[in-house]
Amino acid sequence: MKRILLCSSLLVLSLLSLGCSQQGQTNSLASDSIASTDSLEGRQVLIGKTLLLDYGTMKAEVRYDSDSVYWRTMTPEGQLTRQDREIPSYEALGGDRFFVTWQEADGTAVTQIVDLKEGTVMASILDPAKAKSGDRTPLVLVGTAKEVNQAK
Fold this sequence. Notes:
It is a single chain. With 152 residues, the chain is of the alpha+beta class. The protein has one domain (2-147): Lipocalin. 27% of the residues lie in helices and 39% in strands. The protein is built from three helices and nine strands, in the order H-H-E-E-E-E-E-E-E-E-H-E. It has a nine-stranded antiparallel sheet with strand order 4-3-2-1-9-8-7-6-5. It is globular and about 40 Å long.
């Protein structure tokens, strides 16, 4: 039941995001909105942060920049499996929560809800290879999100 509710929520947010982009909202405008809204309210911002996302079965390190998302996925033991740079869409949801979505070069669609205050992330990943075989069920992941300390 929890998974159905989560999938439904992610689907609604995806459709809302699609509607915003069709109304002419650009990635940079969305990013500016996040930065200005959060700085005015004294909230944390997502732009410029690098997070370690731990889903249990997979880990990812993601850097959220205004015009790019740099990501790499790893096994639970930390062995690199994939990495790339994507062009994201961002939306501030309030309360230090952010909706992030992008499409990878191979067609994989990724949607995340990142909660900086709670240190959590929910992701929906739709693999085009599975979709071609008739399985259009997204992989839904729930995990922790911890900021990576950039100062070494």
